[in-house]
Amino acid sequence: APGEMTRVEWRGKPVWIVRRTPEMLESVKSSDSKVADPRSERNKELTPEYARNEVRSIKPEYLVVVGICSHLGCSPVDKFKAQPEPFESDWKGGFYCPCHGSLFDLAGRVYKNKPAPDNLAVPPHTFLSDSKILIGVDPKA
Prior knowledge:
Elements: E1 5-10, E2 13-19, H1 22-30, E3 62-66, E4 77-79, E5 94-96, E6 103-104, E7 125-127, E8 133-135
Antiparallel strand pairs: 1-2, 2-3, 4-5, 5-6, 7-8
């Protein structure tokens, strides 16, 4: 359902599939100035070419990311509700890593001046149908 996250495993790693609402996608646009690498250009091996865009996805509605913080490998928690939070007064929703306080927006992009150096990784994936995603296979394969 829109606004919810599905958790799967791929190569022993947690993979999160978030079906984003139009409001969630708006919040991604509004966090461009707060994130360190808005177009995923810094560490290219973490983001396949087809996901190097503002929303970091093939289909804007669906975010597919590896649920491991790029700092020390902790697992961030989903905090999708836009509301003031102890870690960010103007929180628009995204992921919070409780280990050292790294923040990621609803596209998995890391906030500036946080311990995590990179955005959450986007695993290779392709759509088999409108609602079926295959993790681990590049769409061009």
